[in-house]
Amino acid sequence: MQDAVVIIPTYNEIENIEAILRAVFSLPKAFDVLVVDDNSPDLTANKVKGLQEEFSNRLFLEVRQQKSGLGTAYIHGFKWCLNKDYQYIFEMDADFSHNPNDLERLYNACKIEGADVAIGSRYVKGVNVVNWPLGRVILSYGASIYVRLITGMKIKDATAGFVCYKRHVLEQLNLDQIKFVGYAFQIEMKFKAYLKKFKIVEVPVIFTDRTKGESKLSSSIISEAIFGVITMKFKSLLKK
Question: Using CA atoms, how far apart are residues 32 and 25, in angstroms rounded to an integer?
Fold first, then answer.
């Protein structure tokens, strides 16, 4: 068992999953991988099972009964990882929008440079997004500005889904109280870490939109993020 594990949530990622796993396992730094699959109709889980013998004791799979949202998939994965001895726990997409080569940079930010949370940030140095339509860029960048204004966090990319958490961060957050399931989940995790005064750093990365498979973004996910941020901030003020 390694000291670091990458959680990759999947739903219909049959076109990407083998390639992303091989990319992670080919890195000089050894990472284990946990795939959390929501019973994909395209049989993504079967592809992972077929690779487990080749990557014995490095590739793990949890299959849930139905599609229940990104946030709950990560919470499931976090709890699984905390039952092991991993010290560095990562979030990463299956579709190569996050470059596996950047895993080591996030790892070093926590392991060597002392961060508690390291975010692979699209916006910490300008706008580093490839192949997104202009409307999507404006929506995402505007959302990050909106989150900073409402929450007071200095994070430039609060909706980022490429993150390394030190074990003790997840142990001190009450994972059962994380309520959001879409991109608001990413904001909520960072906000709760921010309230506990953990050291959060942003590592600049280039985000490349998927070329295979379909995006999971929907209007309900956007709505959850917009209104969820206000609710989240209001609740934090009430606690004070």
Answer: 8
